[in-house]
Amino acid sequence: MRDANLRFIVVTITSAAWLLVSAISPQAESPESLHRYLERAATAYREDRLDTAVMYYRKAIAAYPNAAGAHGGLGYVSALLGDYASAIQAYQRTIELDADRVDAYVELAKAYRETKQLDQALRYYQAALQRDPKRKQAWIGLGSVYTDLGQFDEAKDTYQRVLEIHPDLAEAHHNLGFVYSRTGQYDKAVPLYERAILLNPDLAWAYYQLGLAYVKGGRWDDALESFRRTIVLDEDHISAYYNIAQAYIHQGNMRAGEAALARFRKLSEAEEKIQWQKRYVERNPQDSNVHFNLAEAYAQGDKLDEAVRTYTRTIQLDPNYLNAYLRRGAIYTELQKYPLAIADYQRALTLNPASTKAHSALGHAFLRQGKIEQATSHYEQATKIDPNFAHAHAVLGAIYNNGGELNRAIQSYKRAIALQPTRAQILNNLAWLYADNGIHLDEALQLAQKAVSIQPHPVHLDTLAWVYYKREAYAQAEATIQKVLQVEPENEEYLGHLQAIQESLQKR
Question: Model pTM?
Fold first, then answer.
């Protein structure tokens, strides 16, 4: 069983309200503008515009250098962006201005832990507990640092003490169980994991650690169930897939084991890229290119939140990094955060007005929102800048066709095909246009057959069937649509085409 990548849950602040709109230290100046800065920063934070939030916190600090809340907010957002040096500096200043702000001690300790400055992390978790002995986050953080240091007796004592104060704290039960696992006391770990799950059924790592503990006790069936529950809660949990595979193989279910191993390998490859890029970032924290590469690795691993934050950090380091705006905008588009996407693409156009990628991306974002006029304008502008931009011509073909501009649609599709003659989707789309309108059916047949030969996708086969139907080659049409329905037997559109074809056959 693999228990590399073991880690444990750390309670984090889920609401940063105290930082984002916190109380203001007395100032000689009127606090109204400070409130406005903090409110704008809070709004930017809620809208995931972290670079804008940083800007407003810095403006607040420039105008009100003794506003502890502004420094705290800057620290919190900087940490989210992975800029721990700035976060540490901001939290230290927060504490200088307000020594009783317990959350600042906790967040400073977290930042030190993230940067592996564990002695400092201990110091500030302990300082937080001196000021608030019941603070859950501080106890959990302190125990996690002791575990990092291999000081397991101290870690056990820490978690036992917090459970005396908060007996229903699921994370403390889990983390204490993890310490027992690390010291080989699995019989003591199991009931702690089970208690953690009872208190918080969504604690994925508790199921995973419980599964490992079950394996140590030879309880393979129970272990498999725990690992499977882990991936229900966290579908990208790499180690869980490995251990699921081992459990299946132990049961003799080789096919299921191989499937789990395939998923494990895919996730491991993506994670390996991320970890490599993280190492480069640690060595070159001010290099925008290194941060951009890490963001790309996150995006390829489908870790979109991390990707967005790392693209944002790239932009912080280099506000003129064109591709960072384009790539962040693409993720915002995928997440349907269209105002943020459009703002990024427009910024890219400010940096390079001749960027066909930016125009195309804007066109796509507007198209996703049903704003056809704006989308058309940007795709047309892209083709003016680069007449050989095949993708833009192809999209314009679809837009014109949907808008009833048949001749313009045909012209755009033909231009796209001339530029990319083996692009199956474009061949298919023009073939469908011809067939749907009952024109140029000989050419439609050639296009559809070529599309299918390049990529026998159900959509392309359906188009070929429809071309046969329009040419009254009903037997060929039926044979082709039947192939489609073998793949997608419940597709209503394909079933409708089959019905039309069969009705025509019956009339003969």
Answer: 0.78
